[in-house]
Automatic annotation (TrEMBL), chains A, B:
The lineage of its organism: Bacteria, Pseudomonadati, Bacteroidota, Flavobacteriia, Flavobacteriales. The keyword Hydrolase applies. One of its GO terms (molecular function) is 3'-nucleotidase activity. Keywords: Cytoplasm, Hydrolase, Metal-binding, Nucleotide-binding. Binds 1 divalent metal cation per subunit. This is 5'-nucleotidase SurE. Residues 6-195 form the Survival protein SurE-like phosphatase/nucleotidase domain. Its EC number is 3.1.3.5. Its cofactor is a divalent metal cation. It comes from Euzebyella saccharophila.
Amino acid sequence: MKKPLILVTNDDGITAPGLRALISYMKEIGDVVVVAPDSPQSGKGHAITIDNTLFSTKLNVNKKKDASLEYSCSGTPADCVKLALQELLDRKPDICVSGINHGSNSSINVIYSGTMSAAIEAGIEGIPAIGFSLCDYSWEANFDPAEKAIKTIVKKALKNGIPKGVVLNVNIPKASKEELKGIKVCRQARANWKEKFDKRTSPAGRDYYWLTGEFELLDKGEDTDEWALANNYISVVPTQFDLTAHHAIQGLNEWGFN
Amino acid sequence: MKKPLILVTNDDGITAPGLRALISYMKEIGDVVVVAPDSPQSGKGHAITIDNTLFSTKLNVNKKKDASLEYSCSGTPADCVKLALQELLDRKPDICVSGINHGSNSSINVIYSGTMSAAIEAGIEGIPAIGFSLCDYSWEANFDPAEKAIKTIVKKALKNGIPKGVVLNVNIPKASKEELKGIKVCRQARANWKEKFDKRTSPAGRDYYWLTGEFELLDKGEDTDEWALANNYISVVPTQFDLTAHHAIQGLNEWGFN
């Protein structure tokens, strides 16, 4: 049987330890091609580069360990997927995996996430896609406890397919192998960020801000990704890019626009 | 009665004609505060600035015509809304309007849209929000045929409220006042972009790409925004930021993860 072709990308950049871990896991499942940003792209959401040029370099960051085909790209995660599919790959990948992100993309974070936008971009192009994130922002984070679950999810997605219009958002709690309780299919918890702008003054006397904030969970449901993660489960949220609030159409029709 | 406070933003930048048109329409409805990017931010999706500083300048681009409070911001559209709500406004706005974008944000374009991300950001913060886009990329586009409809939609939203978790994505066809047929509540059409990368070589001999593409409509429904626009209707799509594909949860539970 022909090995599946796996496109691997991320938003933390091509040298990120989370990407290197994902590459090593995927090499046990299929043929791997990496197209990842040449610099960190966290929080880039679904940005694409329309007013600037894109550079791409064929390279191998870690030749011995991951002897796979690798390209860096000067654009966003969504750019990487577009460039991979249209220019760099010689056939359509069987699956696209993005991550492993250094930090959570659960709940409302999915909106800001470059990791998930790469997966969503692949989904828009009709390719089964999964974003993986570990709830640990450290560059020294330990991805190994989730290795087995990540491989299980990818293998099952390759076998079952992922429904059309859906990509999977997988978040992994910061927990040891012993603490991990399993995988739970969830919905996105309702939450937002309570922003705090850290206002400072530049040496030249001009005020500026750093965006900071605190995550505010507004959802007490036990069927959410936040609940799962807080209870040491790996969360899998089926995520869609039809943003229509179908339930709101009828009510809006009663506004009597015309 | 106290006039409503209207936060106006966009993604084409604070000097864009579409923004100036929206400001002038909104000044007839309420008190206007503008917080808009200091440079074009098209295609920035829901990017936020977490690895750079944000500058904001109080200014008045067009003092005579729009004597409203205005701020430029060095960040993305989503940054503008966050900064407005947390730092620049002294009370919560009654509504946030974003646009008028120079170009369509219908169908899958909503995913890449800075205009809509600003509206969605306000929606996440619990503020009724609407993104407006005209299907005309020209800087000399004529926004006036839609003036009446834009005011109607904003007034109705102020009166009725917008359902929690929903923001409105309004797209306006390029049409004369006589050609415009009215307003239609729609769902997001299924579509994608068929990318074409324009590959060139720099003077220094390095290959680079420009992202270009063609819009590919994959949906024959007559209840979609694309159908409405093609038939000279203004489309209103209720848009949500709970991305959960609820219909896919049951099927995924049958994968037997654990």
